[in-house]
Amino acid sequence: VRYELYYWPSIQGRGEFVRLALEEAGADYVDVARRGKRGMAAMMKLLESKSLARPPYASPFLKAGKDIIGQTALILFYLGPRLGLAPRDEASRLWVHQLQLTITDLVVQIHDTHHPVSGWLYYEEQKPAAKRRSGARRTSGAIVYRNSSAISNACSAFPKRMKRFERKVPLLIALHGRVGQRPRIKAYLSSERRVPFSQWGIYRYFKELDG
Amino acid sequence: VRYELYYWPSIQGRGEFVRLALEEAGADYVDVARRGKRGMAAMMKLLESKSLARPPYASPFLKAGKDIIGQTALILFYLGPRLGLAPRDEASRLWVHQLQLTITDLVVQIHDTHHPVSGWLYYEEQKPAAKRRSGARRTSGAIVYRNSSAISNACSAFPKRMKRFERKVPLLIALHGRVGQRPRIKAYLSSERRVPFSQWGIYRYFKELDG
């Protein structure tokens, strides 16, 4: 089966977790919305469809034959055994999923450091709350401890703070480095398939929030 | 197996999703931390344990024999087939899980209407941001559409706003009513096992946020 990933074409965002899994496995897939206007139209058509019995609530979602699956962690749970990336026994598979769900919580926490009031308002409209929230994040930053795949994202949003934090989690930093050296991941990261970091995704850099 | 649920004893919170599943199935379970000081101590001991190979990050978590499982949606995914509450075929089971994950997102959204800056600060310390966030929520309140189990919670936090919204989603309101009439759920809701709504949980009522 050729997998079809549907996600916003100009940000890494939540779609990046799925892209990394597909790339690591060398899977046959299409990043549909990055194929230009037609791809975006195809994504919006599915998102707004009223005839789908099991519609995804938002992107990213994955189309695999007739299956359409939303929710990032669920997509990974679905792909894991199919791509040979997850353990086979139930308890271990559920454990990997539990870690991914905790990473999902972390992603919301990070996103909300710059958009604590609403994702529908500009950052500039919620700067004071963002400053306070980022300060609060610092104290509970220890959550990163158990979430290695969040490292490069956190580094891009909070370079100064992460520099200090890195010394406390050497194994995590080493793991992050090793993942970046996996042959397929390395090739992917320097390819055109990789969306660059930007000021429009989840992990935005604002000097004043990097206390 | 006798299930052990570990969750804060004085709030419904995320634990309530698990309590409702266990009650509907008439399962043999203990709500450990509600057993008083000893129960709380047992929960904290597990949460702070350094010897568990697969530690839950936070409560609620479930102990089923040797399995310890964190993340509300995952606990429900685990219990579903065991309690006969979820469909058997993979696609349907994943669909139910997808819905629960979207409800999980909604719970964060609701919690953050009164704590947009940080869960570590009092509501009074983040009132202006909370007011703006609750206003923003109104425009995107349509997410409740697809999440029937969130209804009674939303009603307790936003009674005025929900009154207006109810007219738009009659089927959802009817479904919510039917669930409350299920014999075991009905018995549970009027029992001492049910934690009452309070100002300390996820769904708090603040007059000024119910615009």
Verbal overview:
The structure is a homodimer of 211-residue chains. With 211 residues, the first copy, chain A, is α+β, with helices and mostly antiparallel strands. Chain A has nine helices and four strands. In chain A, helix 1 runs parallel beside helix 3 and helix 6 crosses helix 7. Chain A is globular, with a radius of gyration of 18 Å. At the A-B interface, strand 4, helix 3, helix 4 and helix 5 of A face strand 4, helix 3, helix 4 and helix 5 of B.
Compile the SSE list and pairings.
The structure is a homodimer of 211-residue chains.
Chain A: E1 3-6, H1 15-24, E2 29-31, H2 37-48, E3 61-64, E4 67-70, H3 72-82, H4 90-114, H5 127-139, H6 151-157, H7 159-166, H8 170-181, H9 183-189
Parallel strand pairs in A: 1-2
Antiparallel strand pairs in A: 1-3, 3-4
Radius of gyration of chain A: 18 Å
Oligomer: homodimer
Mean pLDDT of chain A: 83
Shape of chain A: globular
**Major beta sheet of chain A, specifics?**
4 strands, mixed
State the separation between the terminal residues of chain A, measured CA to CA: 47 Å
Provide the structure class of chain A: alpha+beta
Identify low-pLDDT runs of chain A: 138-149
Helicity range of the residues of chain A?
40-55%
Strand order of the largest sheet of chain A: 2-1-3-4
